[in-house]
Batch of 2 targets.
Target 1
Amino acid sequence: KKTRILNIYEDKMVFLGYEFFKKPLDTKINRPSEKGNTKFRLIYRPSPPSIRKFKRKIKNVMDKNKTSSILTVIKELNPIIRGWAQYFRISRQSMRTFANLRKIIWFSMLRWAKKKYRRKSSAKIIKACTGKYGNQVNQWRLKRGKQSVWLYRVDQAKYLFVPKLTEKKLNPYVKAEREKLEARALKISIRRKEGF
């Protein structure tokens, strides 16, 4: 079935890689309103299948490049990580997922490096292959002379604010909408007279 009707207050909907559901607001705000309804917020975040697919892509790149240099791995991982993060950054709830994925990617890189450089300890690998990037320490990189190639951190993608869809503008040439506009103008003029 391509079409399905569900109650978003009870079920989670997965669409275009996002998981949508309604969640009650914080306990301090979440009091029954005058009408007896609880206020809910729409939550959208990367869905579990999207996260699994992303992790599988990272793993495939590392499995494919077991004998390659760290430069090759970083160059192949960067577009995958950047693209995924840029797509999912329109959700505030994605930031927690990004932080978890950053740890997973970091330890995956360490496992890959330990397999490649079997005779070196983890501490030596970390010292040789990581560095300080901005305020982040132990960031994976490859140093070539004065230049460094850094592994893109998935949580570097900043939250992108998407404004809410506003209701359509009222048309003054439609009688019913003109009456609403006149009532609104009257309210505004009364408030101005009262000093609000």
Target 2
Amino acid sequence: FEGATLQNADFSGSDVKHVNFTGADCTGVLFERVKLEHPNFTRANLTNAVFRNQKGNEKIETMDATDALLQNVRFEDAQINGANFTQAVLTGTVFIRCLFKQSVFAESDLQGVQFVDCLFEGTQFPQAQAQGAVWSGKTRFSRCTFEGTNLDQADIRGVEFRDCKFHGASMKEIRREGTVFDSDCNGMAMRAARAD
């Protein structure tokens, strides 16, 4: 499927193992109860795609979404293991009841992203850009748990953390002006970046 146009395709109930979607137009694609093992979405357009009921045997395993466009995507009830969202644009995307294990959001654009009832285990957010912006809404983490998660050097200005828990999480050298922490931050190492 490299470079293919797959707009509004329905992959529900499929086994998608080692499939290459590099540069594909996957706008509006539905992945429901799909076994996604090692899919490559590098530079793919997944705008308005839906990933639903992706757990148990149908979890998302080592997905590569490097430099992908994931605007207004909906991930619901998904287990996401070893995903790479490095330099991905996720503006306006919603994650509901997702479990992230050993996933990476390095230098990704998380403006306006909503994380609700999510668990992050060993997930990395180094240098992620989550600054709240008027045009895309605020980035919010609601009722999320961060275990051994790295948010070092992230730009989280204006981001809201509502009723979240941090266990062994690190936020060193972050930019956090205007950030709302209505959460249990006892298990977190935090240090703000110096203003230049």
